Amino acid sequence: MDIEFGIRNVARAVTFSTDESADSVNATIAQAVADGKPIELTDDKGRRIIVPADALGYAIVGSETKHAVGFGAM
């Protein structure tokens, strides 16, 4: 699943992919924002992404569906 964070006062968005479910990612972001604590997620390569909740401008959580790639018969 693809995730994009917009950080306040930063021109470029932070984008990464994770193996976590959309519900899990949404719950993590909502809890961190409510508590005023950093948002901590792990990408699909094992790297940790930590964003201060008060610096978050927006978050886009992508769909979990896998899209077919290629020209094979459907």
UniProtKB/TrEMBL annotation:
Q: Which keywords, in A-to-Z order, does the entry hold?
A: ATP-binding, Nucleotide-binding
Classification via InterPro entries = DUF3107
Single GO MF annotation: ATP binding
Taxonomically, the superkingdom here is Bacteria
Q: What is this protein called?
A: ATP-binding protein
Give the organism the record lists: Bifidobacterium callitrichos
